[in-house]
Amino acid sequence: MRRDGDDVHDDLCSLSREDLEKEVAELREQNAEFRRSQRREEIFQSTVDYAIVATDLDGIITDWNPAAAKIMGWTSSEIIGKSADAFFTPEDRVNNRAFTEMNLALTNGRANDERWHVRKDGSKFWASGEMFVLRDEQDRPRGFVKVLRDRTEQRETGDRLRQSEEQLRTLVEGVETAFAIVEVKFDAGDKPVDYRFLEANPAFELQAGVNLRGKWVTEFAPDLERFWFDTYGHVALTGEPANFESYAKAFARWFDVRALRVGDPAARQIAIFFNDVTSRRDAEARSAATQQLSDRIRDITDTAEIAAVGAEILGTTLDLSVVGFGRVDNQAQTITIERYWTHGAVSGRPKTIHIRDYGNHFDLLAKGEAGGW
Questions:
Q1: Total Cβ atoms within 10 A of residue 340
Q2: Rounded Cα–Cα distance for residues 304 and 260 (Å)
Q3: b/e for 22-46, b at 16 or more Cβ within 10 A?
């Protein structure tokens, strides 16, 4: 009887060169496959953050890595041989969610998974992952592999963030103060040239008198005062808050404003809180004008001089170009202007005005009501 080594030697000697090369190639492929299999097993066992669960086509668990045991609580010996729906919620088990995922994976090649799952102790965790189809050498399905990660903390953080955002939005939308997030636009020399309203609460339209959400301010007010661009640009560039009251002619309103930079400084965005204070400013202006008129006519007795002082104060207070006081002739329905006050160069000031040329203003004046044109 020959030793085994001799038998192998004789067998090899009896092979042709072609057979020998084929035998060597098969041995190399087997060795390569072994190394690949060994590498897959190393990855499977060493992955610490991702649970990897393998099942057969019926959803019976055939493999379970250490991370799956850590995340879900079952050891591999406890769970292998059981159905994959063991770690699905009772509601998902009733709805055969595990098998729905398998069918989706067979149809689409994979199935996404973002839902609650359960641990061995019954506690829930939010899982994020996918299921893939395992195939044999003939590309036939032979099972599934499910990879998932415990994302409970991120889910809860996201929920808290969404809740905070919703509370903030409710607060912002519920207050009477107008609020807007503004993106300031600069030219190549870092000069502010425009700003766009990215967000605005309902009070914004009420206070500003116009809805500018998503629009550049120059679309509505191409001649807006330079003050607004410079002030908002300074806040966006330096981060220094600004508090001020100013008049915007395009809006025909006075605004009490607080502006501060928000977010990434590179985004050049600011938050604006403001209130329309036009009524208050008008009341203050009327009160100041009344006091000024009282002081200036205290020692004046001439009616024409009193009218002239009144015209000047009225014109200055209301930022008018021309103010005239005159006598009304009810029969002729005319007003004879005795004296004008003007600001700047104004031409074409008629001495006599025919009231009917200006609609029903004569009727209003006859009743002692204010009229203007």
A1: 17
A2: 52
A3: eeeeeeeeeeeeeeeeeeeeeebee
Condensed to tens digits (0 to 9), the pLDDT of residues 190-238 reads 999 999 999 888 888 877 888 888 899 999 999 999 999 999 999 999 9
pLDDT digits (tens, 9 = 90+) for 94-119: 999 999 999 999 999 889 888 999 99
pTM of the model: 0.46
